[in-house]
Amino acid sequence: MDHQGGRSDAGVAEPQIRIVVVAYHSGEVLGPFMDSLTKATVQPYEVVVVDNSPELDAGTAAVAEREEVRLLRTGRNLGYGSAANRGAAGAGAPWLVVANADIAFTPGSLDELLEASSRWPGAGAFGPAITNPGGVLYPSARELPSLRRGIGHALLGWCWPTNPWTTAYRRERATPVETTAGWLSGSCQLLRRRAFEAVDGFDEAYFMFMEDVDLGRRLGLLGWQLVYVPTAVVEHLGGHSTKRTSRRMVIAHHRSMLRYLFRQYPGPGYLPLRLALGVGLGFRLLLALALAGDSAGARATRSADELPSVRMPSD
């Protein structure tokens, strides 16, 4: 069923947005997610909750009772991209939102993203500004990782988050403005359905991490722009579904980084480089497991106060 904001005198309007929520033991955060969504847009929408949990928890079951929600249980943890693809399959709405369950939308934030689409008709994906608890701005729109920036960020980001390579990669040298990016955080983004389908969605070879980088790269190869919209703001509680298995997630992150980098340098001529990258990432993994609290990458260092003023929706 559609969100009630889409109802008209003639009946229920067709959904303009399908929101795909990837959940994993997420019952405690899905309710607040849905509550924030009701104020995020005036457009009619539908919600597909893709539950990767092996067992259905009470909070997820309660959310599934809402009229705008369809629950899709996978029976096992398929990973983020695979679950998102299943939630997006068969959508008729022109827009998709793919989001973590531990997101809270600010009022009008999805409408801000939709409004930006009129300014960027060649864009296939739009990303909001993402804040973490405590008013910290997460670097959710970044450059595609080059070899130099990637090595500098991988080696130094977790222990020296303001190093020049990480700063350049995460675009932290200027005030946030609406602009194109190499990739957008998969924790929350708005996608043109036809762009998402043109690249066959997320690459399911990535269990978790780097699937959003890879999606951005493939959208760009087809000529689609990716746009960061800092006037649209969401709060990310951060790491809800990974806290219970952080060691496993650190390993998954490094495995995905290795997969992504190896794919950028295929063929026998790049074998020495791939071997060097493998050794370097293996060493980083050992350090991350032993020492780093922010081992998946550099911690966020900017204040959300740097964001431009948000235009509040009229009543």
Provide an overview of this structure.
This protein has 315 residues and is of the alpha/beta class. Helix content is 35%, strand content 22%. The chain has 10 helices and 15 strands. It has helices at 27-37, 58-64, 80-88, 109-119, 147-156, 164-169, 193-198, 211-221, 246-264, 271-291, and strands at residues 7-8, 11-12, 17-23, 45-51, 69-73, 95-100, 103-105, 123-132, 136-138, 141-142, 179-180, 183-184, 188-192, 225-236, 302-303. The strands form 3 sheets. Strands 3, 4, 5, 6, 7, 8, 9, 11, 13, 14 and 15 form an 11-stranded mixed sheet that branches. A two-stranded antiparallel ribbon has the order 1-2. The protein has a two-stranded antiparallel ribbon with strand order 10-12. Helix 1 (27-37) runs parallel beside helix 2 (58-64) and helix 9 (246-264) packs antiparallel against helix 10 (271-291). The radius of gyration is 19 Å and the shape is globular. The protein starts with 6 loop residues before the first strand and ends in a 12-residue tail after the last strand. 44% of the residues are buried. Mean pLDDT is 87; it is low at 1-10.
The averaged pLDDT comes out at: 87
Roughly what percent helix?
Answer: 25-40%
Low-confidence stretches: 1-10
- Main pleated sheet: 11 strands, mixed
Radius of gyration: 19 Å
How would you spell out the order of helices and strands?
Answer: EEEHEHEHEEHEEEHHEEEHHEHHE
Structural classification: alpha/beta
Oligomer classification: single chain
Shape: globular
Total strands: 15
N- to C-terminal distance: 24 Å
SS strand fraction: 15-25%
Helix count? 10
